[in-house]
Design a protein that fits this description.
Distance between the termini: 103 Å
Structural class: mainly alpha
Strand content: 5-15%
Strand order of the largest sheet: 4-3-2-1-5
Largest sheet: 5 strands, antiparallel
Number of strands: 7
Shape: elongated
Helix content: 55-70%
Order of helices and strands: HHHEEEEEHHHHHHHHHHEEHHHHHHH
Number of helices: 20
Radius of gyration: 34 Å
Length: 538
């Protein structure tokens, strides 16, 4: 008996919770039914305002249909439907649920007519509904739209929305949208001056665009206030633009660091000008492509882990290819830098053609995992997640490599060979294997650089060609074989490039950077951070 009472009480509570929503739906349907009795535009407008007054987002579909001329009355029973053209007839959809109820011939229906004035009323009504939406993102989008398209008719709905809003950030956006609408209204000058101050505090390009329009269409104190606000915002934006260029430069520098750090090791230890280094980057990018293709076809749930899986594989592929190049070609050409340059250039062409043969000459699609997609703003700075993660990854690779070089026996051997090859050999260090494994390490790092670059650049056989010259500039500028020099050189060249591009263009900007490096090398032939002990080499 107790169990039966509990079940009965539960059912009563559930029915009680459903009654308000059922009653609300019935009330909405009763209001919508009034469209059938509306004999003119004024009567239709009264129904629209009655629906809007409910504040229920469920009335948005019938109001949108009315504005688009798709709200119909069935002549047989005066019921109101949303109509969808079905060729010979009209599909009748329930105005609240959107479900198909029936079909009818066009002659059996009466379209509810609207004019421009009624469309404006409906637009304002829809704006009011979105301003009251439960989802904050919808309210924010509505405020942004109203700010960019100000209208005096928005002031009333915005006043109501501001009074009801509990989220401080959304409320601030509503107030800015209201200020924008005030500026195109016939409100007193004092109200407009207050609105300009509020918009000036916003301080972004949308505010400048709005105030520029106000400045062009105003006189007296309002025009002067708009001009002053524009000047203030522009000076602030100039600082943000400089910050944005610095971020772009750091982002480019992280890419250059990844591409150049392996080259710095091989060039410093072995003195080899490796023109195939860019192709190691390319192989890493194509390894990422292959990994993603396998995951897409066989393990789609692992796609967000595709880059994590690709990193060790790209390192191994590039390192093995690098080891084969060193053992098969380069070890016979030590001490002859011109021959190594030509030989590695030939190897790069072979690798490019091999990739074209296997994968084709066109770009391949490499997707972004969800955690590398999208962007966020810091003030007026736009920062993309993929660039931020690449920066973090580049610094992590730099830190690991620095630890290997400074804190491990293998790193000690590498530094010994770099400082004085013959002395290192006399101490029992097998310099040929140090050379081979160093070349493999540098190539492997280039491979994992390719994994990162696949997220921001086209994966094609020519991917590495775009980075080889920049990588050599970074290495020479920073100091051959010096990791800290490579770090400073990469970020310095990246930032300088991004500040020059707006004035000189991308190509001319790189030429200017190259000229500056040439002039710098005339003064410091060993770069920013010269390795000590290299002069002992014979």
């Amino acid at each position: 008996m107790i169990l039966i009472r509990a079940i009965g009480l539960t059912l009563l509570l559930v029915m009680a919770s459903l009654l308000p929503s059922s009653a609300a739906e019935a009330d909405l349907r009763a209001i919508i039914a009034k469209f059938a009795a509306a004999t003119n535009f004024s009567a239709t407008e009264a129904v629209v305002r009655e629906l809007t007054a409910t504040g229920d987002p469920a009335v948005e579909p019938p109001l949108s249909a009315l504005a688009d001329g798709n709200l119909y009355i069935r002549k047989a029973d005066s019921q109101v439907f949303v109509g969808k053209d079905a060729g010979d007839g009209i599909d009748l959809l329930d105005p609240l649920s959107g479900e198909k109820s029936a079909s009818a011939a066009k002659t059996d229906l009466t379209k509810i007519k609207v004019n421009n004035g009624l469309r404006r009323v409906i637009r304002d009504a829809l704006g009011t509904l979105t301003l009251r939406a439960t989802d904050p993102a919808v309210r924010i989008a509505a405020a942004a739209t109203m700010f960019k398209t100000p209208d005096a008719a928005n002031i009333g709905p915005l006043d109501a929305a501001i009074a009801a809003e509990t989220d401080a950030s959304v409320k601030a956006l509503f107030e800015q949208a209201r200020a924008a609408s005030l500026l195109v209204s016939d409100r007193p000058e004092a109200d407009k001056l207050s609105a300009i101050a509020l918009i000036a505090a916003r301080g972004d390009r949308d505010a400048v665009s709005l105030l520029t329009s106000v400045e062009a269409n105003s006189q007296g104190a309002v025009k002067d206030a708009a001009s002053s606000a524009i000047a203030t915002i522009n000076s602030t934006l100039a600082l943000w633009d400089a910050g944005q260029n610095i971020w772009y430069g750091i982002s480019l520098g992280s890419v250059l660091l990844l591409a150049a750090i392996g080259l710095a090791i091989t060039f410093g230890v072995m003195g080899v000008i490796n023109m195939a280094h860019g192709e190691m980057v390319m192989l890493g990018a194509y390894t990422t492509f292959v990994v993603q293709q396998v995951i897409r076809t066989s393990f789609p749930g692992l796609f967000d882990w595709s880059l994590v899986i690709a990193l060790p594989l790209a390192f191994l592929v590039a390192a093995l290819v690098g080891l084969a190049i060193e053992r098969g070609v380069i070890r016979f050409l030590y001490g002859r830098p011109l021959e190594t340059l030509l030989a590695t250039w030939g190897v790069s062409l072979i690798l490019q053609q091999a990739v074209r043969t296997i994968f084709g000459p066109t770009n391949q699609e490499v997707g972004n995992p969800s955690w590398m997609s999208g962007s966020f703003d810091i003030g007026q700075l736009a920062i993309t997640w993929n660039r931020l993660w690449i920066l973090v990854f580049a610094l992590l690779v730099f830190g690991v490599l620095l630890y290997v070089m400074k804190r491990t026996p293998w790193g000690l051997r590498m530094r010994a060979v770099t400082a004085n090859r013959r002395m290192a050999a006399s101490m029992g260090i097998r310099t040929p294997w140090v050379d081979a494994l160093t070349f493999a390490l540098g190539s492997g790092i280039a491979g994992i650089a390719g994994v990162a670059l696949s997220q921001i650049d086209n994966v094609s056989p020519n991917l590495g060609r775009g980075y080889i010259i920049d990588s050599f500039m970074v290495v020479v500028f920073g100091g051959v074989g010096n990791l800290w020099g490579t770090l400073v050189g990469a970020f310095s060249l990246g930032i300088v490039n991004k500040f020059l591009e707006p004035y000189a263009g991308a190509v001319l900007g790189k030429i200017v950077v190259l000229v500056l490096i040439i002039l710098f090398i005339q003064k410091r032939p060993r770069g920013l951070f010269a390795l000590k002990g290299r002069a002992v080499e014979a």
